[in-house]
Amino acid sequence: MIDLRKEPPNVVTVDGLKRLLEDGWLLCIYCHEVPELRGPHYHGIWYVLAIEPKERSRWAALITQRTRRTRQASASGSAPQADLVFREIRTLSTVFTMCKELGYTIPAAPMVAGQAVIIDSKAE
Fold this sequence. Notes:
Elements: E1 11-12, H1 14-22, E2 26-38, E3 41-51, E4 59-68, H2 71-76, E5 81-86, E6 89-91, H3 92-101, E7 116-119
Parallel strand pairs: 1-4
Antiparallel strand pairs: 2-3, 2-7, 3-4, 3-6, 4-5
């Protein structure tokens, strides 16, 4: 399956993910941390990826892009440094909300660390 420990071949923002999905890529939800039930909600860590349907070794991970100023950058007057990290989805309801916002009406998410589910059909 997908080895998230290696350097990904591609990373995308939400807009880039939407473009890939529109081009026919598959939506993949990967469970990184076993979810635990806290009150009425499951909390864990899930990653969102797009997978190329014909060559499944090609994938792109959804990232969060944050900018931060370091003391050196501020002192030298250079632009803020981009900090790119995998976007961690922390609750199951957020996974389902993201699926809905991307046009998937039947959301799914694995509940075991290391497992992934591919959602390949959108609402017509």
